[in-house]
Amino acid sequence: MRRAAIVVAALLVVLALGVGGAFVVHRKEQARDVRGSSTVEFVPQQLAPTRPTEPGVSWPTYGHDPERLRFANGVELAPPFKRVWMFRAQSLVEFPPVIAYGRLFFANNAGVLYAISAKTGKRAWKRATNRCQAASPAVNRRLVYFALLNRPPCNAKKVRDGELVALYAGSGRVRWRKRIGPSESSPVVVDGRVFVGDWTGRVYAFSANTGKLRWSYQTGGRVKGALTFSGGRIYVGSYDHHVYALNEKTGKVVWKAGAQQRLGHRGEFYSTPAAAYGRVYIGSTDGKVYSFGAATGKLRWSQSTGGYVYASPAVWRQRVYVGSYSGRFFCFDAATGDVKWKFNANGPISGSPTVLAGRVYFSTLKRRTYSLDARTGRVVWTFPDGKYSPVVADLTRMYLVGYTRLYGLDEKRKAAPLRPITTAQLLAILHRAGFARARLGHVRPLPGATQVMRGVFAARYRTIEAAKAAPPLAGGTRVCNVVVAAPRGARRKLARVVAALRTACVPTRRAAAAPAR
Predict the structure, then answer these.
(1) What is the spatial distance between Cα 274 and Cα 268, in angstroms, rounded to a whole number?
(2) What pLDDT digit, counting tens, does each position of 486-511 carry?
(3) Coil, helix or strand for 424?
(4) H helices within 396-479, ranges in order?
(5) How far, in Å, CA of 273 to CA of 233, rounded?
């Protein structure tokens, strides 16, 4: 009897080991990297992120656009750079500013909200909130939206509430505020609503103008990253191991997808999704970058990085860029997840990259910012500050976020020589602006100039120097070797002409060896 019991026990142990071994094999199989397809739920169109339509707005939200692509279309700035101003924020600035109305808007970790001049770096206003802060704001129609965490201490285990606050961009005065859970979710404004998540796991849609709640949805874990909008849907990652697609108008779930099963703790999503090519790209604490179908939520590919992926991906030219706590920065094929190249940095990477003019910028936790050729991974430029998501830009200047400082950076390169505008170019520009059909009052030509079109004064000189030496003309504007003027009723047309003349006068500054945009 005793011998039989021993045999039974031994069989049970063998069975348990067999089941355990099978479970381990099964989990390893579930956790394997998945290679994607370039034909299944992938739309390989050339991305051209919409430039902000509101006048005076250059960088309206975290990641530049509602899709969070982190690529600024039309920005041609390239290193090396020179510092033109520096602003001391007195505390950690973890998330980058937004750029609008000639100002940068951002907050430090101590909860002080700032507006500073983009031209000089001088402070326009500041507002203390007595709350902790770890998110970029958003701007829309002269309002700035900030998500706020709990009151200090910032790392308190027991937290009660946070806020979403809307301020007037000009003065910093509060327009409205809403009590929500502690939030480090950078807001996004779409179709008159501001979307944000919080640590209670709830996702909100508020009226951007009044703060009235339109809808909310409860996920199963904390929402720490920002929400992404694309194609009428809101995409958000949660600490319940899932990514959600919600209907933008109602908040109802369209689909719910999860991180892969694995041995040990399943991956959570701090990263903010990026939506492009019919896919959603997001990093996870299991060390992987995931691509889900934007329409179905099905896993299209996953790729291991060797460390946590808190960073949010940047997307450019069918490639996905993201850094890892492993200290490596990756460039993936957006369709398949294949590694195009990787770069070994000097420390863990937590913040998100930005692509400008064919170069990708990111920082490491050892406080160094890198600029790499986005095609090859070759180092182009470095800067001895920066820790998280370091770079935003407008058309004329790049702004770099250091640990506690902000820098305004201009290109170091010498200005390209101007080239005189030809008569044919001038006539074409005037025709496109509509002056050929306009009946405008005659303006007497300047001495030494040639009037090339009836009805508008457009004087072309042989050289730029001759145009500079000509007598000034009331209401006239000189661009290179041309002076143009028009009656008051045609000032808008004249502005278009001046902009086109400047483009024709200044040659493209990028050398042939520069990375492709």
Answers:
(1) 16
(2) 766 676 777 788 888 888 887 654 43
(3) helix
(4) 423-433, 464-469
(5) 12
